[in-house]
Design a protein that fits this description.
mainly alpha, globular
Length: about 70
C-alpha cells in the first residue's frame, strides 16, 4: 500500500536506534574532517533534527576542512 502512495522506502523504515544517532553525533567532533562530513550526511539523510546544534558546532570548527558539505547537511 505504501508503494501505491509513492512513499520512499527510507520514510517508511523502522525508527532510528538512539545508539546509532549518538554515535554519529559523537563523530561530528572527531578529529578527522572526513568523519565529521560522513556523520553529517548520515544525520541529514535520516532527518535527525535534534543534531542541528552539533552540526553548527562542526560547521564552525576551524578543523573542519569542508564546511560546505556540513552546511549542505543542514
Amino acid at each position: 500500500m505504501l508503494a501505491a502512495w509513492g512513499f520512499e522506502r527510507l520514510a517508511a523504515s523502522a525508527p532510528l536506534d538512539d545508539t546509532a544517532v549518538a554515535n554519529r553525533v559523537r563523530d561530528l567532533r572527531d578529529r578527522r574532517s572526513e568523519v565529521r562530513v560522513q556523520a553529517a550526511q548520515w544525520l541529514a539523510v535520516r532527518g535527525v533534527r535534534e543534531a542541528v546544534p552539533q552540526l553548527l558546532v562542526a560547521l564552525t570548527d576551524p578543523d573542519t576542512l569542508r564546511p560546505c558539505r556540513i552546511a549542505h547537511a543542514l
